[in-house]
Amino acid sequence: MIAAPALLDTALMLAARGIPPLPLRAGKVPFGNCPDCSGSACGGRPNMKTPGPCLCPGICHAWAAATTDPHVLTSPSWGAAWRRAAAVAYHPGGADMTVVDLDDAAAVDWALATLPATRTVPTTRGEHWIYRGVMRSVNHVRPGVDIKSTMAYARWLGHGTGTMTALPAAVRALAEKSPTTVHVSPRAVAVSALVGGGVCPHRSPSYLERGVAMAEQRITEARSAVHATVYRTFLAVLSTHGRCGCLTEAHIVRLFTAAQTKGESPRHCTEAWTNARTTLGL
């Protein structure tokens, strides 16, 4: 065996059941991109909606590396990752599942009173409620509650108890109605437009799109000093695009979403954005 036997055995068990696993490093975080793919240089996996390794050697692109292919999981190129791994995670969306992550006792009490029963798995502080069906992943949909499905990962903590039931409308509604998911007021995202219409001068609209995508990835791959990384990334985006009028609220929501996925609160996101604007005189 080329990896920690217990972790690899768990991963192979999940793969055999159609659940795409991936290794986690210490701190319950996935392995980041390889140097060749840093900053989306490869042009691929971070923007894909399905899991699977990219064409570079080794595990790459975090949750998107999750795979049910046993040849990939046991390949020499994944060996270093397994030897360094501290736990096994999986991509719920890749297995037609949604995990409602209840982070504390209060969140569990809310779920018991609000959501239909389904398979439950104990966690360190709360529970995972697992439903059959997929949806977009959103953090902080209410106090102590995250939703993990597409383009996300959940730590494997065992099979749990109970029968998995269909994803209810009540869970889907959380992603649409939550005021704490990403809140960006028009004042917080306002930028100075160029005289003459505010047309982006940066070569083409794809230049802006790539810049925002790279900023999202920079935040997502932060391994420490997340708050500082968020601020520096916001500063970089605003220094390039903050005066030409090309940034929209949708772009800012994407950046705030990436930051909140790393654990930043809406308030911290707003403060970092405001401070970056102030620094640049916007």
Number of strands: 9
Structural class: alpha+beta
Quote the beta fraction: 5-15%
Q: Compute the gyration radius: what is it?
A: 20 Å
Order of strands, widest sheet: 5-6-4-8-7
Treating each run of at least 4 consecutive H or I residues as one helix, how many helices?
A: 10
Q: Give the low-pLDDT segments.
A: 178-198
Task: Give the end-to-end Cα distance, rounded to a whole number of Å.
Answer: 56 Å
Helix content: 25-40%
Task: Let me know the largest β-sheet.
Answer: 5 strands, antiparallel
Tell me, briefly, the overall form. globular
Report the average pLDDT across residues: 81
Instruction: List SSEs in N-to-C order.
Output: HEEHHEEHEEEEEHHHHHH
Structural descriptors:
single chain; 282 residues; alpha+beta; 5-stranded antiparallel sheet; 4-stranded antiparallel sheet; 10 helices; 9 strands; globular
Can you describe this structure?
Strands 5-6-4-8-7 form a five-stranded antiparallel sheet. The protein has a four-stranded antiparallel sheet with strand order 2-1-3-9. The chain contains ten helices and nine strands. The protein starts with a helix and ends with a helix. It is globular. The longest helix has 16 residues, at 205-220. The model is unreliable at 178-198 (pLDDT under 50). Helices cover 37% and strands 13% of the residues.
